[in-house]
Amino acid sequence: MQLQSIGIAGGGAWGTALATVARRAGRDVLIWAQEPETVAAINETHGNPVYLPGVALDPAIEATSELGEVATCDTLLIVSPAQHLRDVLGALQPYVQNGRPLVICSKGIEQATGKLMSQVAADAVPGATIAALSGPSFAAEVARELPAAVTLATGQEELGRQLSHALSSAAFRCYWSSDVVGAEIGGAVKNVYAIAAGIVVGKDLGRSAQAGLITRSFAEMARFGVALGAALETLIGLSGLGDLVLTCGSEQSRNMSLGVALGRGATTNEVLSERLSVTEGVATANAMVEIARGRGIELPIAEAVHAIVTGATSVDAAIGALLSRPLRSEAG
Ligand SMILES: NC(=O)C1=CN([C@@H]2O[C@H](COP(=O)(O)OP(=O)(O)OC[C@H]3O[C@@H](n4cnc5c(N)ncnc54)[C@H](O)[C@@H]3O)[C@@H](O)[C@H]2O)C=CC1
Ligand SMILES: O=C(CO)COP(=O)(O)O
């Protein structure tokens, strides 16, 4: 399959960082951005000062305000916030040509439907060839060409291999996988647990508490993911455990930094109203607990995060409730 040109739908931090990735891998790159000023900045000053400040882009990276133009590329990377993915793909759908891979790079679960991004994509672009790119990768680091390794999942193994080669370069390694659901679930739910880890840091509960929280969060990720059809092998890989470790350990994560602020006494609205960038874990916590309750999956940490971010409970009450749960077998 011809994979020379890469169209990127989304001019935020990650879409822009992925443009640098694709360019370094030798691809021709066109970004669609929603804001005319982002398009102008990429084309005229070769930067994205709003979403990815301080990064000089290769002048060969171009941007457009016409969504249909990116659909002429050999492969499309879809990098909108999760809750806007359906609208972006709906607008793109008339232009998508049969067989062109859609690589979903957004991390989240759709709040209104409880669907994973690949399921939303299948609704919005029926018959599309869908892949997911997920894993521990901060846009600002990737754009600076610091090393990162991610999972590229698609049901068609040969396509996974080709896409991985088309996007990889010295500092960006794509490992292919056939488990799209697993790759997506890890990337979506780690955002919820990063908020929890941030709360632990914001409340100064200590490193032991942080390590315990991350480990029990992984147990929840595995329980939830396997129930939804993910392979455990995927969840212990880059897109699951890998991204959990990254975002639960660095305040560079928007989700973790929200948690830190909550732990220090701020409200969700106070934090989010100050931000242009997306904090996916808030909506995904809601979707996750709805799914879990419907299926009888026990997720005490995700439930606590959801209750805190919606203001249904206080941080102290949620921590107290988690610490007073009955003791149980670790394997259970
Ligand atoms: N920033 C990062 O390091 C990484 C982000 N991601 C994922 O990529 C996705 C996009 O995140 P970022 O690029 O960081 O976004 P961002 O926070 O840098 O920028 C927000 C983006 O949302 C767009 N937007 C706002 N309202 C919109 C609407 N109504 N319809 C369509 N687009 C709208 C803006 O144009 C902008 O591109 C998220 O799902 C995120 O979890 C994944 C890996 C790394
Ligand atoms: O997904 C990410 C890194 O892999 C980015 O995390 P945040 O959205 O929490 O900043």
TrEMBL record:
Its EC number is 1.1.1.94. It catalyses: sn-glycerol 3-phosphate + NAD(+) = dihydroxyacetone phosphate + NADH + H(+); sn-glycerol 3-phosphate + NADP(+) = dihydroxyacetone phosphate + NADPH + H(+). NADPH binds at residues 14, 51, 107, 139, 254, 278, 280. Its main location: cytoplasm. Pfam families: NAD_Gly3P_dh_C (PF07479), NAD_Gly3P_dh_N (PF01210). The keyword Ion transport does not apply. Belongs to the NAD-dependent glycerol-3-phosphate dehydrogenase family. PANTHER family: GLYCEROL-3-PHOSPHATE DEHYDROGENASE (PTHR11728), GLYCEROL-3-PHOSPHATE DEHYDROGENASE [NAD(+)] 2, CHLOROPLASTIC (PTHR11728:SF1). This is Glycerol-3-phosphate dehydrogenase [NAD(P)+]. It comes from Methyloceanibacter methanicus.
